[in-house]
User: Fold these one by one.
Assistant:
Number 1:
Amino acid sequence: ESSAACEVCEGAEEMTEPLKQCTAWLHAYFCEPARTASLPVPAFHHPLLRRDSFTGQVLWTLLRDVKFGEAVSYKQLAELAGNSRAARAVGGAMRSNPIPIIIPCHRVIRSSGQSGNYGGGNLMKEWLLSHEKLQKEKLAY
């Protein structure tokens, strides 16, 4: 991965604080993944992220419990969110995720180990999973 891929757009000084946090988090995700754990997660105000809905509960559970370089099945995520019979509903929550990558719906795979679907396309999902696996292996050395 070249350093050119890790440049932040011009005009960063004109960004609002939440946008700066989001930019810093995404920069770290792609260029310095070890830093993502120490950065604050950007503030989210989307209605789907309310914790009183099953979708919100699933998305926050995914963000909190499934770490960089890990994967979880739809069924496992349903169990973590408190309803072991809601694997299909987890799929619906992944489809409605308003902030993919930050809330890492690409880490949710089928029980068979196949990647499953992704709003950004299956090639993007495979790339993100490979990126995380490669970065995690680099950190292990």
Note: The longest strand covers residues 72-73.
Number 2:
Amino acid sequence: MAQRLALRRLLSLAPRGPLAPPGRTFGTSVGRRSTFNVQDGSDFQDRVVNSPKPVVVDFHAQWCGPCKILGPRLEKMVAKQEGKVLMAKVDIDDHTDLAIEYEVSAVPTVLAMKNGDVVDKFVGIKDEDQLEAFLKKLIGA
């Protein structure tokens, strides 16, 4: 309980940036369609927990330097899986409730979810070989 309160306090003090940089648009390539931003708890339930495909969940924050390195690297690796896995991006400043529910105590935190259950997890930056191994383990390749 004390950890949850500390996380809530920490998240309330974090500076909030814009949701997306001005002028940034999302492409329609296969890689981009497999990556999406979680809008709210209901969206998370529908698109992550109830997903028929495995989902990588990237808990990140706009102010997090390592997140800015890991995010694009992870998106690239998910795109290489050609639709076998999806990627959900969750901004912890906008979705504190999800961060607390999934016990995210540091960012970046990445969860591997299959059939609504967390089956693997890592915290921090990984290189492309480590990300590839993480994804292959998730999809069972």
Note: The chain has a mean pLDDT of 85.
